[in-house]
Every structure is written in structure tokens, then in C-alpha cells.
Structure prediction request, 401 residues.
Amino acid sequence: MAQDQVAQLFSDDTKGPANDTDLNQPISITDAPIDDEGPIEDIGDGSEEQLVDIDTEDEVPAAAEEEDFTVPPRRKEILAKYPDLMKDFPYIDKALYREKAYSEIFPTLADAREAQEKLSAFDGHSEELKNGSFETILTDLKTSDKEAFSKTVNNYLENLSKVDNDAYLHVITNVYKTGIRNMLQMAHQNQDADLQGLAFSLNEYLFGTKRFTAPTGYGNSSMNPEIDEVKREKETFAQERLTTKQGDVTALVDRTLRHNIDVNLDPKNQMTPFVKKNANKEAMDLVNNQMKEDRRFQSQLEKMWKDAEKSKFPEERIKAIRNAMISRAKSILPQAIRKVRAEALAGSRERGNGDPGPIRGGRPRSAPQQNSSNKGTSNNQGGSKLKIPDGVKPHDWLMQD
Prediction:
């Protein structure tokens, strides 16, 4: 039998009845078309709080990306020159200790990024293995190192037998059962009694009985599609619950920020309702965008949500996430409010200087009567020029009664 036919025989894709009882039913010899010319070659188709002004984080300067072997100053040296520095800026004191601890593990930013990428990949592979799959792992290995992939294929069963011999035997048994099942399915499709008898004989040789049983799952796992569907439904429910919790927290944080913006944006009532409404929205957008671009904060937030999900969303963890989001947003808010307020008021002043405003109501002045003797002359008495009082706009003077 050709190699591709053998592969199909032991694959799990062959169409036909999968019920054990159906496959164990004998085929009538009189109804079975037997090919006397030789072996069968075609085996089928395997088919609210006081705001604190904290500047936002600046981008890492390009020089920081390069390796710097400059010895950092000691804390005592800094305090000798700037005795109140740590008192005025306590964050610097913490940053010095943190930088020292980080540099002992990751000498450069490139090392830290590489470790983060590897950790992220490991977490993904670990989660995949917990779900009973290693397709991505094999795909990555085959793409990056074909020789290592070949070694993994060649040594898989041997390694499995060393770790758990029962698991090894289970895999081998399922391979045999899959092949026998496919033989029985093809026999039913083609009404081939000889092939069916051969399948039963093989089953008896391997398992001591002619009665065929389908492949099974190992341990507590299952190959039942209904159980797999229940598992998927649970995963979908868990994801929906996470999304709902995140939406609730975000809505509460947004209400807190809107209240702070509304109170602090226009304390002197210099904006029109329309301008203030748009300024409110712009301030919210600025805060939300800066929070999304803060990669360190987003990483911390993602970890907090994962921990909350694992512990089934206890109230104290949800409150901690909410407080973290409000704290980070309020550190950005003062600068955003000042920026939006300045732009809104500047725009209002520009419109006030360039727009004469609405025309006031009133009746037009009656045109003076002219006779034929003074046609072509000025309308005022004596022909003198009209003079507009100082401080009055020509438009307003012309429109007055």
C-alpha cells in the first residue's frame, strides 16, 4: 500500500459512520461487491479628589538606548550637593534603588526588551499547553530551526514513554484504533466484507477481541465533541465576564474624570456652553490617549486584570484596579486641562476680536428728501461731512435710531 494511503488509513479524517455498533455489524456477502482482480487501491476520499500636577512620562531618550558604562553617583554624593533633592522629589530616591536592582539583572534596555519578549512568548506557549495544544510551539520550532523540529519528531514518543509509559501506550493504542476504524468505515462504504473481516482480525490480534471500540481520551480529558463544546462555552462566559468587569470599571473611572474636568476646566465661567462641551471631550480624549500610550502602565494593568480573573474578581482587586486607573489619569489631568483651557479661551478671544457680532434690531433711518436743486450734493445740511462719535463703531452708529 502506498505511503499516502497508509497515512490516510491512520488519519482521523476518513468519512463514514463513526458509531462503534455500526462498525461492528457484519456486511452481507451477497451485497458486497468483491474485486477479484486484486487489492483495493482506492480507499476513499480522506476528506472626585484634589488634583495633583504630576508631569507625564517622557519618551526614553535615544542616548539611553545605548550602553552606558558611566558609574552612577552614590546617594551620599547627590545629597552632599543637593541636600533637599530626595525630600523635594522622593520618587528620585526610589528610582535610584530600582535602577540599581534592574541593572544587576538587565545591564541594558536591549537585554530587558529581549527578556520581556521571551517571557511573553513563554506565557503564550504555557497557556497553549494548558489547553492541550502545542501547535504554535511546533510551528515556531519548524520555522526557526528545522533540524531541531526533526529531532523533536523523532524523539517524541521515546520521550513520552520515559515521562509516562501509560500515556505512551495510550497514544499508540489510539493510533491503532484510528486505523482499524478507518478500515471499517471504508468497508461499509464499499460493502467490502473481506476488508471488514481483516479489520476485525487486526482488532482481535491487538486487543484480544473482535469488537471494535473507538479511540478515547487520556486521563480526565475527553474526545467527546459535546464536552469540548461545554468547555468552549465556559471559556466564552469567562471572557464575557472579564469584558463586563472591565467596562464597569472604565465607566466609573470616566465619570470621576468628567467630574474633575467639569469642576476645574472653566472656574471663571469664561466659556460658552458649546465651547465648554467640546473642551470637556477634548480633555477626556487627551487623558485616555496618554493612558493607552503608557506601555508600562498598560502592562501593569493587564497583570492586575489577570490576577483578578484568576481569583474570580474579588471586590478588593477590582477596587485596586479602579484606584490605579484613577491615580494614573489624575496625574495626566492637570496638564490636559491647562492645555485645553488655553486653546478654548484663545479661540474665544480670536472670535470676539474679528466678529462684529449680531446686528441689533431696529427700524432703518428714513432717507432725507432731496429736491432737484440739491441733487448730487451731500444729504446733510450745509453739505458738511457726517462725523461718527469717538468709540462708536460705524456699523452701530448707522443702525441707531
